[in-house]
Amino acid sequence: MKTKFYTLLIPSVLVLAACGDKNSKNESDQPEQKIEVKSVGELTIGYYDMEKIATDFDFYVNTQKQLESKKKALDGKIAAQQKIYESAGIALQKGMNTNTLSQNQIEGYQIKMRGAEEEIYRIQQSEGMALEQESMSANEILINKIELYAKEFSEKNGLKLFMSKSVGGQVSFIDSTFNMTDPFITYMNEQENEISKDTE
Fold first, then answer.
1. Can you give the pLDDT at residue 2?
2. How far, CA to CA in Å, does 120 sit from each of 68, 71, 117, 130?
């Protein structure tokens, strides 16, 4: 009696950002990153590795830990009810086989089993669905954050093309000289730290 849960997935995000004079939030308060922008003719390009974002982008890592913790607690609740159901079932079967249970005792075990079964269903339908919705919402927020930060990062560093690279993605190969994963993740973490300070 298990239900499916969505997990955070990082989609490939392709961001085309034209150069502009827009200043990033709190840019003057942050130390300047020295980024060497590579160009192909008049086209300045870069890319970031989605797999590394899954391990180094603090927002993703922390959100994933929270969801996994909630999923573990939910699984524990279901397992506890399954144990109640199974224990009552074993006792009922044993009593029936040995003819040692009164009618009231038989009904008592049956009521206990039905109660556990109903509780499992309730947990799956209420708490399980709520966790699934929370996971989907967190995934949407993650996508929006990456798109926003990629645009800001591109404008700040004069990139006209900034793309994501992932296994099985649209970009099969790109020279590592265009890799801007580390400075991009640093930029995103800095923006998230600013948000954390503002919301404390």
1. 43
2. 19, 14, 5, 15
Please write the tens of the pLDDT for every residue from 3-17: 444 444 444 333 333
Residue (of 147, 138, 166, 150) closest to 65 by Cα position: 138
Strand partners, 164: 48
Which pTM does this prediction carry? Answer: 0.72
Residues listed for the chain:
200
Tokens of 194: 């600013």
Which residue's entry shows tokens 């109660």? 115
Assign residue 4 a region: left if phi > 0, alpha if psi is -120 to 50, beta otherwise?
Answer: beta
Task: Determine the Cα–Cα distance for residues 194 and 196; give it in Å rounded to an integer.
Answer: 5
Token pair, residue 73, equals 């607690």
